[in-house]
TrEMBL record:
Domain (CAAX prenyl protease 2/Lysostaphin resistance protein A-like) ranges: 107-195
Regions crossing the membrane: 31-49, 61-85, 105-125, 146-172, 184-202
Lineage per the UniProt record: Bacteria, Bacillati, Actinomycetota, Actinomycetes, Mycobacteriales
Native organism: Corynebacterium haemomassiliense
Entry superkingdom: Bacteria
GO molecular function: endopeptidase activity; metallopeptidase activity
GO BP terms, alphabetized: CAAX-box protein maturation; proteolysis
Alphabetically ordered keywords of this record: Hydrolase, Membrane, Metalloprotease, Protease, Transmembrane, Transmembrane helix
Keyword Calcium: no
Protein name: CPBP family intramembrane metalloprotease
């Protein structure tokens, strides 16, 4: 692997961390340690390959509000989708198992790793990775497609088909937001609003 492709190493390490988390068991100490490892990897990756300008500039609150509204809208759409999916065991089973994590490990720790890792995913897959791809000659659209695909591949190791589908939708929407706003406030707000909403609402359907 040439040096220009080194930015993909954190993606592989992130996938390893998520895989080990699921293997350790949802809500176990090993689960939280593995997800914490993933968060550290993502933070280091952004520090090396991301841009500090993604957190600079005026109107930060407007970006956050915009992202929150988008995340809430996505959450509503997914809740309606859950009404259908709950009747499909192949899809509902793995999702229900993952959604039991707070009941096993507590809501505080689960929300903590959800927020930290969610922000880390946006910093890597909506800034660091596409930025490196564009630097290699990819267009904005191409970089978005490839970085979202990488995000979905990493998510695959969780073994939850619905999560992979969600990653594709969320990844595409938040990448668009990162390009439109030029920053990460809206993507992170959208991601966290959606994921926290899913954690709190979806257990009532599965």
């Amino acid at each position: 692997m040439t040096r220009q492709w080194l930015f993909l190493v954190p993606c592989a390490l992130g996938a390893l961390g998520l895989f080990l988390a699921r293997r350790a068991g949802d809500g176990t100490a090993g689960f939280y340690w593995a997800t914490a490892f993933t968060a550290v990897v993502y933070a280091a990756a952004w520090w090396l390959w991301g841009s500090r300008q993604t957190f600079a500039g005026p109107r930060k609150l407007l970006d956050v509000l915009r992202g929150t509204l988008i995340g809430a809208t996505l959450a509503v759409v997914f809740v309606f989708g859950a009404l259908v999916v709950q009747h499909i065991p192949l899809l509902a089973g793995p999702a229900a198992e993952l959604l039991q994590t707070p009941n096993k490990g507590g809501y505080f720790l689960t929300l903590l790793v959800l927020v930290v890792n969610g922000a880390g995913e946006e910093m890597v897959f909506r800034d660091a990775v596409p930025r490196q791809l564009r630097g290699m000659g990819q267009s904005v659209v191409q970089a978005g497609v490839w970085s979202t695909l990488a995000y979905c591949l990493v998510t695959c190791v969780m073994g939850v088909p619905l999560l992979v589908f969600a990653a594709s939708v969320l990844g595409a929407v938040t990448y668009y937001e990162s390009v439109k706003t030029g920053r990460l406030y809206s993507p992170i707000a959208a991601h966290l609003t959606w994921s926290i909403g899913m954690l709190l609402i979806l257990p009532h359907f599965f």
